[in-house]
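Researcher: Here's a chain I'd like modeled. Treat it as a single chain, no partners, no ligands.
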Amino acid sequence: MSDCESLSNSPEPSPLTTTVTLQVGEEWFTTTTTTLCSESAFFAAMFSGRWPNTPQPDGSYFVDADPKLFKYILRYLRDGTLPLLYANGACDHGLYISLLEAAKFFGIDHLQQWIEKKRFLQAIKTSWSGNIVEGTVSLGANTTPDEDVQIYPVQTTKKVYVCPRGIYVHRGNPSACGKMCAKARADNFEYEEEPLLSTLIISKKTTVDYEMCTKRHWSDASST
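Model: Modeled as a single isolated chain. Structure tokens:
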């Protein structure tokens, strides 16, 4: 009886397992038959004894697949971690398409459904905000690694109070005007448009719901 068959027929998982080395493409991975057969129909069949499965001279088993994709496959089989494939804040849909085909090849239904239903999009939340402030600003050390802040100089205008007597030091400050200014002004406050250099601040904040990247979360969600 093979390792996979004995494990699947046993009422309780056996603490004994067989270490196995796989050559996937040009790279080697060491794991256990228990891990490989846990959810993969491909490996369950491979180690069932029904396939002519002869190891290579070095004792490893050859699997004709992309090793870069297989690392995600093996990580999922080991601990149920669902991959978030993002680069520079954007989802790598091309890599997800390739990983989906790998999940189909290795017969891992849960991982296949997780990608097909685009559940990885629910794990990433992105919020945007914009604000214009007077003058120039610098980012300094106030940003966090999950926040992308861009600043742009913009030309705006503002209304500036004009003293009715033309006193320059009163410009922009009505409270500086005295009784003579008030008499000259009466109730007619005058303002002028004045150019102003301002700064447009655009902030992009990305948060990750790590619980959504676990098999446990989706298993609990599907059972309710």
